[in-house]
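Let us practice reading a record.
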Amino acid sequence: MDRTIEEVERRTVPHVRHAVQFYDGEGFLVETVAEYVAEGLGRGTPALVIATQAHRDEIVSSLAARGLDVGKLMATGALTMRDCFRTLDLFMVDGELDAERFHAEVGDLVRTVRGGSSTIRLFGEMVDVLWREGNEPAVLGLEALWNELMANEHAELLCAYEMAEFAEAAHTDAFARICRHHHHVLPTESYSRISDVDRLLEISSLQQRAKSLETELQQRALLEHRLREALEQRERLLEEERTARGDAERARILAQEANRARNTFLAVMSHELRTPLNAIGGYADLLVMDVFGSLTDEQREALERLQQSQRHLLGLIDQVLGYADAGSSVARYEISEVQLGDILESVEHTMAPQLAARGIRYDRSAADMSLVVRADPTRTRQILVHLLTNALKFTDAGGFVELRTGTRGNRALIQVRDTGIGIPQEDLTMIFEPFLQGDSALTRTRGGIGLGLALSRDFARAMHGELSAASVEGEGSTFTLALPMG
């Protein structure tokens, strides 16, 4: 031992049946137990110590330092020492208490040590060993069994626990239950050694810390409750998001299926309409060639009107077929570097008869014929033909149509500008929608079914380009085709 008995404050464990001593240091525990045993021996009370080997050795040394002849005391049976682990093995079965074995083994031991004396003092640290092993049920059960034994035997029992083993907040309930099993609870040496004034201060400080801890636990419980609510809310939101994504995916699939069905229907119907119209055109051509005999002027004029109507219907059907083809999954684009001049000259040759027939001035002097774009030449030609056709359709005789080019960043701009009737601002947002037109009454008089611009924009976007429009009602319109430069 590093300290002598004079260095340790002397105190006597109160004469109660079952007391518990909490301690911080091993030295204090040894001196407390030695004082407890020595005081009893001095009054002729036999003692039984059930402890670890290390503690037994230190208790013997402390008793000897007090002038006691430990060997003689043990030889006469006044002092008996037992190993706590071996004693536990007498009544513990697979980590559980056997009450009958405890009363049989430990009860007999207590009665034997007491002999003819009126009482006996016991010290046991088996409960401390069980607590360190984490066997809380066995600790509480053994404390209860000791109380049963104390009720039947004239004995005083002192148990001991190291306070550091109760350092966690989760130990609070078990600590209180252990204390309730004892008739008297003795605090650690840090409390028992201080003066009365300091002791009151310590009590007040402990009360404040306890209140602070209680408040902290309440706040923590509140935070945990809010956290659980937040996690539940997050899970609900995630579930709603998963549901929404599933609904969106199903809607997308349905839209794709509807789009395919629509395109299939348009393609089939357009082909079905083209067959009889081609037959009408063929027979009309035969009639014009006088294959079936000469025609009068009136018949020839009627036949010319028939051919015009037939060509007009074929043009409308071609637009429907083009739209269905553009929206289908099998549409193909032959993208390559193309000189813009070749496309513009081809378009002019196609549109020349209409320009001449309508009496509309046409100018492309502001077009750079050397520009190179990355595009499908056939689709680009179709877009420009439709834009020029629209410009002629909505521009009266004597008007002006211009085709010019420019650049913006890495894109070539091809613009078709006219001095026609223009488009109302409120209609600019809908002119690129299929089967929708700005002024339906006007477009019915000038022809068209509202597919040309929708089809043209789809072609432009498929070539990584864009088609846009600007217009002032009564002054004209400008359509801009933007394509990647080569």
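A brief commentary: The longest strand covers residues 400-408.
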